[in-house]
């Protein structure tokens, strides 16, 4: 298979292997932690969860990172990225252990959310840093290939972590035990980062400003410079790609809330059965991510990354209507696979466009902006879904709205490419 051959090529790069190990362990831990939160918030038998409650939880966990994200970008362009991976994962392990204690102690929900908020805040630095560091461990010729395999492998690791979390919860019958598993994986990611030299992943030494106060004071100026950099004519394609993937993320988020509600109420009255159905949907979507990694290098090579985004969004516009409107388990799981393919395929293309057109000294802040757009789009989608979804999750209006958004992305991006 071509993907196996490509992976063998990339694995010849020693430092790529090491960065990939950090990504896999970090994102596997993320998958474990996120499933622990989902089961505790959404699928606890004593909780009667609504779409509004899900939206509120997402807002509490994600919206504050619209504030953290810009700081992450500026700091990532000053701090050594290897050190971010080391200290970030150590801090997440500590904070996640606090979450486990709070779960056992039956504390008020707001205190639990504060703990989860802190864990996810550090995540902004780690994920943005992984993307910004990738061009430092592979050559330009293989950057598209690396963008196909590395982030997709991380996503699959998160899916695998989610599956592992399901198994641990089934055996231990404890959300706290699942969180502690995530702690162990965060510690492993921190240790894996020590296999790389401290200066390997950049940024360049003349861009490093080690004093925190100086970096924080320059945040506004740094962001302004990053936005001006993105607005330059030769980087306009990157700006359009970021806008497109944000709208696709919005659509994906709205459908995610719908599937959560369908699993919880429409297809089963038992929370454990609903959780199992959600696990199956996540697994099927993960297969779609893998397929995207296999087909995107050749598809983006023939069409170009931007036209591949057009193809993905156009396919989603048609297939979402056909597969989601019946509201059956089988067609919804097929839709989960399709959305996994088109979402990950478009993301790989967007990563490639941004990394290829943004200078190294700006990558940290641009990828943090990318991350902020993802969070805002997902939370906004959850809020819209909360307004549109009935208690059992079946909403024709929401499905049609999402299909229209996908179609608008395909049309707008296609027109930009023709110009």
Domain count, please report it.
Answer: 1
CATH superfamily: MFS general substrate transporter like domains
Q: State the helical fraction.
A: over 70%
Number of helices: 16
CATH top level label: Mainly Alpha
Q: Largest sheet, if any?
A: none
Low-confidence runs: none
Strand segment count: 0
- CATH topology grouping: Growth Hormone, Chain: A
Helix and strand element order: HHHHHHHHHHHHHHHH
CATH-derived architecture: Up-down Bundle
Derived structural class? mainly alpha
SS strand fraction? under 5%
C-alpha end-to-end distance = 36 Å
Average pLDDT value? 84
Kindly provide the radius of gyration, computed on alpha-carbon positions and rounded to a whole number of angstroms.
20 Å
Q: Topology of this structure?
A:
Layout: H1 2-11, H2 14-41, H3 51-62, H4 65-76, H5 81-105, H6 109-133, H7 143-172, H8 175-193, H9 212-217, H10 219-231, H11 236-266, H12 271-303, H13 305-324, H14 329-357, H15 360-388, H16 396-418
Describe, in plain words, how this protein is organized in 3D.
- Helix 4 runs antiparallel to helix 15 (360-388).
- The model has no long low-confidence stretch (mean pLDDT 84).
- The protein is globular.
- Helices cover 82% and strands 0% of the residues.
- It contains 16 helices and no strands.
- The protein is an all-alpha fold.
């Amino acid at each position: 298979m071509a993907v196996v051959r490509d992976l063998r090529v990339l694995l010849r790069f020693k430092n790529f292997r090491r960065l990939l190990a950090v990504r896999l362990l970090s994102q596997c831990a993320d998958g474990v932690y996120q499933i622990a939160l989902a089961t505790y918030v959404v699928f606890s038998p004593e909780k009667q969860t609504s779409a509004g409650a899900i939206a509120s939880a997402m807002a509490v966990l994600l919206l504050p990172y619209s504030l953290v994200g810009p700081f992450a970008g500026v700091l990532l362009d000053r701090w050594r990225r290897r050190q971010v991976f080391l200290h970030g994962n150590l801090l997440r392990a500590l904070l996640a252990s606090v979450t486990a204690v709070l779960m056992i102690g039956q504390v008020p929900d707001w205190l639990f959310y504060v703990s989860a908020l802190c864990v996810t805040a550090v995540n902004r630095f780690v994920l943005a840093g992984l993307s910004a560091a990738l061009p430092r461990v592979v050559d330009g010729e293989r950057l598209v290939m690396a963008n196909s395999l590395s982030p997709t492998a991380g996503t699959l690791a998160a899916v695998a972590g989610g599956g592992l979390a399901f198994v641990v919860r089934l055996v231990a019958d404890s959300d706290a035990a699942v969180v502690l598993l995530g702690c162990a994986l965060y510690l492993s990611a921190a240790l894996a980062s020590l296999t790389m030299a401290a200066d390997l992943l950049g940024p360049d030494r003349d861009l490093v400003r080690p004093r925190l106060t100086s970096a924080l004071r320059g945040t506004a100026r740094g962001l302004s410079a990053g936005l001006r950099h993105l607005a330059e004519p030769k980087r306009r394609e990157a700006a359009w790609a970021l806008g497109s993937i944000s709208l696709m993320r919005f659509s994906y988020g709205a459908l995610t809330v719908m599937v959560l509600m369908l699993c919880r109420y429409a297809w089963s009255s038992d929370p454990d059965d609903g959780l199992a159905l959600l696990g199956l949907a996540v697994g099927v979507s993960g297969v779609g991510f893998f397929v995207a990694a296999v087909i995107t290098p050749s598809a983006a090579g023939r069409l170009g990354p931007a036209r591949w985004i057009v193809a993905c969004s156009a396919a989603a516009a048609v297939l979402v209507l056909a597969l989601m409107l019946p509201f059956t388990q089988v067609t919804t799981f097929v839709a989960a696979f399709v959305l996994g393919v088109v979402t990950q395929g478009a993301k790989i293309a967007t990563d490639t466009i941004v990394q290829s057109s943004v200078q190294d000294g700006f990558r940290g802040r641009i990828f943090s902006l990318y991350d902020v757009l993802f969070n805002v789009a997902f939370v906004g989608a959850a809020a819209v879904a909360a307004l549109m979804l009935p208690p059992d999750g079946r909403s024709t209006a929401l499905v049609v709205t999402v299909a229209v958004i996908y179609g608008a992305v395909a049309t707008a991006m296609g027109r930009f490419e023709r110009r």
